[in-house]
Design brief:
Helices cover 77% and strands 0% of the residues. The chain contains 19 helices and no strands.
Length: 425
């Protein structure tokens, strides 16, 4: 929700902080990528020393404190108590704290699902947990247009409503941590599967040094590394696009850009939600991943082909198609990753995937900003940014199609189930 909030109003954000550059505005979004690796290290350390509930509460606390600082900086600016530059620095600091908390949530879907859900429910549970992030991004694309007015390319006068927007974000952060505190437990009394029991035993004996052992094992795992490359490029491009929507060719209004981002994410939510049920019912993790990545590559070409003036309706439809095909890459990659690297820690496997993707998103965001600033756009999709995205997505498609990881976790659960069935008979 915080990552995508600047994209639809990047021009208004620039005016609000005294005409700062696009680089400074984009830095508010890029801070989420910059802080992902240190945030992952902190989340992993917390998880190893405590339990899932404590880890979630720690992440919620960081988010809430960061939101308070962000609101204070924006409120002081709207009240003319501090200069635009000082306000921006305060908001940036608060954003860095919120960004640090991100891995506490994004790295945990497979861990939560594996700890709480039976084998027959685990894939859908993983998918639903992983979709909380894009659902928040959709809200982040819509809320700015509701609360922020004035300034920018669309309106005149002073920019108003930034503090109100951040107050709403603060309220959501507080609500989230309250719900976790009162209603969330680390695990059920009895492990829901044999693999969950094995992971509990492994974690009980783990020391902090085991984190680095898992990281080394993951990087040396050939099949996981193929997933890492493909996921890094796919999610890196998606995160960069979230920051660059208002800078795409076409000169569309802030509300139109906000709707574009919301449609992309909501259609992606639907696509990923449906893919979770397909993954659950078929267990065909590899074919589904390869299919959705290939279709997403074609959808990127279609989207880039429609980034031009007076083409909003088709551009909106192409954004929906892009989201519908691209976001299912997230749960299908997660499922393949935790299956093929079992019994290595799920949170570390996911943390490495997301850390790599977010690091790549920094490069892709600033490269995209540079390419979109060039005067010679050329016909869509052959403008510089369009060519860049299509080329990088192709580089991610190749190792994904070569992926041949095994379903180790499912095999482990089946081994314990078959003897139980034989004893019953």
């Amino acid at each position: 929700m915080f990552l995508s909030a600047r994209s639809p109003i990047s021009d208004k954000a620039s005016d609000f902080w005294g005409g700062i550059s696009n680089t400074a505005v984009n830095s508010l979004a890029v801070s989420f990528q910059v802080m992902y690796i240190p945030g992952t290290a902190l989340a992993t350390s917390t998880m190893k020393k405590s339990d899932l509930r404590t880890t979630m509460l720690m992440g919620g606390s960081l988010t809430t404190v960061g939101c308070i600082i962000r609101w204070a900086g924006a409120y002081a600016r709207e009240s003319d108590h501090i200069s635009p530059v000082f306000s921006y620095v305060i908001v940036l600091f608060g954003t860095l704290l919120v960004a640090t908390s991100q891995p506490f949530y994004l790295n945990m879907p497979a861990k939560i699902a594996g700890s709480w859900f039976a084998v027959s429910e685990r894939d859908v549970g993983t998918t639903l947990c992983s979709l909380a992030n894009p659902l928040g991004s959709a809200a982040g694309s819509i809320l700015p247009a509701i609360f922020v007015s004035g300034g920018g390319d669309d309106d005149t006068g002073d920019v108003k409503g930034v503090a109100t927007l951040m107050l709403v974000q603060l309220f959501i952060a507080v609500l989230s941590i309250v719900l976790v505190f009162f209603f969330f437990s680390s695990a059920p009394p009895t492990p829901p599967s044999n693999s969950a029991m094995q992971m509990n035993t492994k974690n009980d004996g783990d020391q902090q040094s085991a984190v680095w052992d898992d990281v080394k094992a993951l990087l040396n795992h050939k099949q996981y590394f193929k997933l890492l490359v493909g996921f890094t490029i796919a999610l890196g491009n998606l995160n960069a696009l979230a920051a660059l929507l208002n800078q795409l060719p076409g000169d569309y209004s802030n509300s139109e850009v906000g709707n574009l981002g919301a449609i992309l994410i909501m259609c992606g939510f639907i696509g990923a939600f449906l893919s979770g049920f397909v993954l659950e019912s078929t267990k065909a993790y590899r074919p589904i991943l390869k299919s959705v990545y290939g279709i997403a590559f074609a959808a990127w070409i279609f989207f880039a082909s429609n980034c031009r003036k007076d083409n909003y309706g088709v551009l909106l439809a192409s954004a929906g198609l892009l989201g519908f095909t691209l976001l299912p890459v997230i749960p299908s990659t997660i499922m393949n990753a935790v299956e093929c690297v079992f019994p290595l820690s799920e949170d570390i496997a996911l943390g490495l995937l997301y850390a790599s993707a977010n690091t790549m998103a920094i490069v892709m965001t600033f490269m995209g900003q540079f390419l979109l600033s060039l005067d010679s756009f050329g016909p869509a999709p052959l403008f510089p940014y369009g060519v860049w995205v299509i080329a990088t997505m192709f580089l991610g498609l190749v190792p994904t199609l070569m992926f041949d990881g095994q379903y180790v976790r499912n095999e482990q659960d089946q081994q314990i189930t078959k003897p139980l069935l034989n004893d019953t008979i």
